[in-house]
Amino acid sequence: MSFELRLSFSGLTALVPRKDVDDPTPADEWLVVMPALERGATIQKADRRFSIPPHQAVLMADSRAVRPNSTKDARLQLTQPVGGQSDLLFQLDREILEIDSGAAPAFAVRSNGLLGELPNVGNPDELHDIKWVPAIDRCAVGGVPLHRDLLDQDTLRPSNSLAGVVRLDRGTLETTDVHRDVNNHPVPYEFRRSSNAGDILFQQALARSFRLRVPVEQEQTMLTLTDSNGDRKQLVVGTYDGCPTNESGERVIEVRVFNRELEQILGFGVPPGSPTQGDTDFVIFYRLSPVWNAMGPDDVALPYRGGTGGGGSARPCEPPVYPGFGG
To answer: pLDDT digits over 139-160, tens only?
Structure first.
């Protein structure tokens, strides 16, 4: 029985095409990288100081979807007080995650060349466009590539600076939704240097999360996780009675990938952040680039919530897209 596998990503994650930054050809596959922040970080750039609270990189799946022949051990089981549904949490520990759907790889990025700053939320082709994951290149003159030494370019195994890497070599990559205000309208975010009073480099809606949708022509599929020593473990998932369906009526199995504060993963929420400080967590993505050391304190651009309506997070933990590898 076929189904759709969805890998949904949120928090401090970033997308990068698997190619050198100066390679003009489109990449056949992309990667998701997650900075290692289990203990948080304090980052100093001259007189600017950025504090990032601890983030945990985990996978979460409905316990009914997880097959008993999985060899990746769950670290935590969360059971809802009403209904008894439970989710299993699996820690990402310097591992590369790869998908075995049993189908020939065919990877596509949902991109329609949109020029506007906000999507028409009633149009799926606009709402799910990858544009709403912003290009970090727009934040700095000369671009912001991902440092190639952060992972092994052949095996993709991450260094200690990354909690995990996910290989996207099949399916369709798209955004899920954008941050909205209290009236359900998209919120524009302004990328500014120095402070919330600095010049606006650009502004646009920001994705709440992004996902990979993979058609699977089997009853189950296997996610393989390989650590820095080459040891492999599998998370096997498949359909179950009562699992949700997509717009075509196909069953959907979702594996959520977080790199967030533990309180938010558990559903307790997090402090909303200050509109005047911007999303200071975003600075971690500059530190993962070879251009970081050459940047001055006023070169660090952060997203600030714009617009006049209420709502929309001041600290969206926004993922960017790198142009490729450099350094």
So the answer is: 998 999 999 999 999 999 999 9
The dihedral region occupied by 21, where left means phi > 0, alpha psi between -120 and 50, and beta the remainder, is alpha
Give the rounded distance of the alpha carbon of 311 from its chain centre: 22
For 155-177, letters b (16+ CB in 10 Å) and e give ebbbeebbbbbbbbbbbbbbbbb
DSSP state of 252: E
Longest dimension (CA), the chain: 59
Cα(70)–Cα(88) distance, integer angstroms:
12
Long-range (24+ apart) CB contacts under 8 A made by 190-193 are 190/303, 190/304, 190/305, 190/306, 191/134, 191/138, 191/139, 191/301, 191/302, 191/303, 191/304, 192/278, 192/301, 192/302, 192/304, 193/298, 193/299, 193/300, 193/301
Nearest to 205 by CA among 128, 145, 272, 137: 128
What DSSP character marks residue 98?
A: E
pLDDT grade for 194, boundaries at 50, 70 and 90 = confident
Helix, strand, coil percentages in the chain from 3-state DSSP, rounded to 5: 10, 40, 50
Structure-block tokens of residue 289 = 């680039």
The strand ranges marked E within 122-245 are 146-147, 162-168, 171-178, 188-193, 200-205, 207-216, 220-226, 232-238
Tell me the sheet residues that pair with 108.
172
Rg, C-alpha atoms of the chain: 19
Closest to 285 (Cα-Cα) out of 8, 14, 49: 14
Q: Are 71 and 233 in contact (CB under 8 A)?
A: yes
pTM value surpassing 0.90: yes
- Sign of dihedral through CA atoms 138, 177, 88, 238? negative
CB count within 10 Å of CB 70 equals 18
Give 211-253 pLDDT, tens digit per residue.
999 999 988 999 999 999 999 999 999 999 999 999 999 999 9
